[in-house]
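Here is one chain, start to finish.
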Amino acid sequence: MSRVFDVSAVSDTLRLSRKGTGEAVFHVINASDAPVRARLAVIPEAGARREWFFIDGDTERDIPSAGAQRVVVRLRVPAGTPAGHFAFHLRVEDCDRPDARFALGPVVTAEVVAAPAAAKARSMNRAVIAVGTFILLGTVASLLAADKARHPGPGAPCPDGHCGRGLTCATQVDGGVCLASRGQPCTRSDQCITGHCEPGVGCTVPLGKDCAAAQECPGALTCVDVLGSPTCLLAPEEACENDRDCASFFCNAERKCSRDDGRCDSNAGCPPPSQCGATKLCQLPDGQPCIRHEACLSGYCDETCQVSPESFQCQSPCPAYTACVSGQCIPVDGKLLNQNVLLTAPRTLKGIQELRIQQGTRP
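Its structure:
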């Protein structure tokens, strides 16, 4: 079964405060090719109790494909708990298939500190303080060096599968390499899981890039024909800001790209001015510009969608995802519908051309 989640911890050790409090930070990445509704839970090991742990925010979250979530687990150990260590990890599961699609994060070890004994304040010799400070600085430097080796930065190899904060270990032909997620800082495109770095902004998706195949569009993108110009745009269900961002040419009311196969359940799933017809296809009403009969609700195109002549009408209703053309019910290619709708959306087309110019491609 393919991997669904990547779960990493910012640190695998945690020292609680004298009051018994602390926090652990995890990064959860949806490694599948579809959005997932994920459920989060803390799994305590021997010596720990479930009521000591609290997850910040919702324990169920929607994570888009290749998307990431920052999960903060807060700890509160009651007073009087003996000094020592206990361990726990984060479990992430698919809400729809929790037993088959899940992942366990790395084990994090927490240290409970003994309560300080009451004592009178005593002055300390400055020389002792200086020596202690020197030792402390040396220890911190050693720990930082060890942490850098244990949690490599962007573009660094990750043979053991571990990377630094905000990074994921991506498998490549010559072994794993740490890549930054969308929005994380970067200096080169080969440091990003999205395949594109914008200096000063971070890892982004290269909307508007030329493509010849889906493999040339990284991360959340897909290669789609834009009136004869193959272009990288956002795949269905990806978060969007404008219609021009989406391969379906429609960013819906939920600010997600609609499906790009031309199919629908209601008008809300169709880019205006198209409507969801009786056969559950997004087609154009009469009067709209058209290039094929199938693009029209009437099944008849003569430069614009028009009332179908009797010779074009079918004797009985057509099944889902087909159109009545010349008296026959024929399957419809969703890409054809999308292309036709684009002709009625000049602002969207202009926006895609602007994206292509930004990427240094042909307008």
